[in-house]
Amino acid sequence: MGIIKSAVGIGSLLTHGIGDTIRVSLTDEPVEEVYAAFDILKAIGLKTDCPYLISCPTCGRTKIDLVGLAKQVEERLRDCKKPIKVAVMGCIVNGPGEAKEADIGIAGGDGCGLIFKKGQILRKVDEKDLLDELMKEVEKL
User: Fold this and answer.
1) Looking at the DSSP assignment, which residues form a beta bridge with residue 54?
2) Could you tell me which residues come within 8 angstroms of residue 17 by beta carbon, excluding any fewer than 6 positions away?
3) pLDDT confidence of 110, banded at 50, 70, 90?
4) What's the CA dihedral at 118, 122, 124, 128 to 10 degrees?
5) Are residues 74 and 85 in contact, defined by beta-carbon separation less than 8 angstroms?
6) Nearest Cα to 88, choosing from 65, 110, 111, 56?
7) How many other C-beta atoms lie within 10 A of the C-beta of residue 87?
8) Who's near 75: CB < 8 A, 6+ residues apart?
9) Portion of the chain with pLDDT greater than 70, in percent
10) Distance (Å, rounded) from C-alpha 85 to C-alpha 53?
11) Rg of the Cα atoms in the chain
12) Which of 37, 42, 48, 55 could form a disulfide with 88 if both were Cys (CB 3.0 to 4.6 A apart)?
């Protein structure tokens, strides 16, 4: 709840040009407050020296651990300084099309997934290798 309240309050002020300092207060570890502040700045387009993560909600077509994978991708990208869009999509039906604006991404399948770049499929990999293969492609960008 603290992140939502901070995002609405701080984000609204900053998008209107009010303020130049952020202080997010959460009932959590202090480093999580910093991550929340960065996420607010990314969401409103003021922090662009880092990846922007796009992920889809799960649906009946999702056959991989999309939630866990998205969290792992977010964690692995935390220190990345590349201004790229990374997509983590749940299915190969809509994944590449919905994320065609992404620089690089994953579209999950049944125990496997596709690695894609700019909406074009690069290769199919086993689910257990999706995270590492995605990160290899991020490093190439």
Assistant:
1) 87
2) none
3) confident
4) -70
5) no
6) 56
7) 26
8) none
9) 100
10) 6
11) 16
12) 55
Q: Which two tokens stand for residue 85?
A: 């869009």
Return the structure tokens found at 65.
């651990």
* Residue-level length of the chain: 141
List CB contacts of 18: < 8 A, sequence separation 6 or more: none
What SS3 string covers the chain?
Answer: CHHHHHHHHHHHHHHCCCCCCCCCCCCCCHHHHHHHHHHHHHHCCCCCCCCEEEECCCCCCCCCCHHHHHHHHHHHHCCCCCCCEEEEECCCCCHHHHCCCCCEEEEECCCEEEEEECCEEEEEEEHHHHHHHHHHHHHHC
pTM: 0.82
Single-letter amino acid code for the residue at 54: I
Q: For residues 79 and 135, what is the distance between their CA atoms, to the nearest angstrom?
A: 12
Q: What percent of the chain has pLDDT over 90?
A: 65
